[in-house]
């Protein structure tokens, strides 16, 4: 990865972190619903992985955080409007935080019932293969979601048809309040890949250089007819499951131990050592991001709530 990309990943990670902090404040004051699943600790991994792909590679994202959309340069005022149920969102505010969609940026959406992404994703992969576009489809998902039936069905189908599908697992060791060791028999989700005849790779999701490198390497194989692959990033969920979650199931010690895996200070330090950042530049970036978020919040505040009279628009039944 070159230095320009390193700085872009840093700026986007910082924006995602600060935007989620603001959304949390707006939720606590009652101005926005507390439905966001914070991506704190995982946003850098998402952004570094997506930076290694083509900007037009179709993506079905996971439910954790705003990082996927920021990686694809979706204007943050549109994200806020979607969350707040306002006109101006990608879905006119009708879909909420889980259904931000912008096909022009390859953001195809997410299935509210976890696992739906897999079967939709292999369908997209099949279309890309037929049309010989040279694109791959990336599907992000969590460790808990890998236990759903659709994962196994989709992984087998993708491998049989050698589809350009990249399964990207963010393993944070939790599914809401359930630790992975009580729900999942294998230590590594990537170990399952060989059972479907595809490559599996494991990476430290807090090491953004490594995430970018392995994603670029695996994607090159997937894109050029090598068949699907699975990358498992071991990540730290630093926040609650969703904003309204009191996290009674995690001890303070466990949460504090996780903080040591936060990629934000780690990547910042690495960039400082490379001479790409210093305290003044970080302060300037923080300032720019604060202003960007302030004006997006003001925009969202001025937007009307989506009118009830539009409920039947864009509804399709067959
Ligand atoms: C089919 C289905 N079952 C349950 C839920 C409720 N649910 C939302 S997130 C979640 C946990 C998912 O865990 P994981 O895949 O590890 O992702 P993480 O939240 O850790 O990022 C659950 C059970 C859902 N949305 N869909
Ligand atoms: Mg999880």
Total number of strands: 8
Radius of gyration: 19 Å
Main sheet makeup: 6 strands, parallel
Helix content: 40-55%
- Please name the CATH architecture: 3-Layer(aba) Sandwich
Query: What's the domain count?
Result: 1
Poorly predicted runs are: none
Helix/sheet category: alpha/beta
- The fourth-level CATH homologous superfamily is Thiamin diphosphate (ThDP)-binding fold, Pyr/PP domains
Distance between the termini: 47 Å
Description of the structure:
By secondary structure, the chain is an alpha/beta fold. It has one domain: 3-Layer(aba) Sandwich (Rossmann fold), CATH 3.40.50. The chain is 43% helix and 11% strand. It contains ten helices and eight strands. A six-stranded parallel β-sheet has the order 2-1-3-4-8-7, sandwiched between helices. The protein has a two-stranded antiparallel sheet with strand order 5-6. Helix 1 runs antiparallel to helix 2 (43-51) and helix 4 (76-84) packs across helix 10. The radius of gyration is 19 Å and the shape is globular.
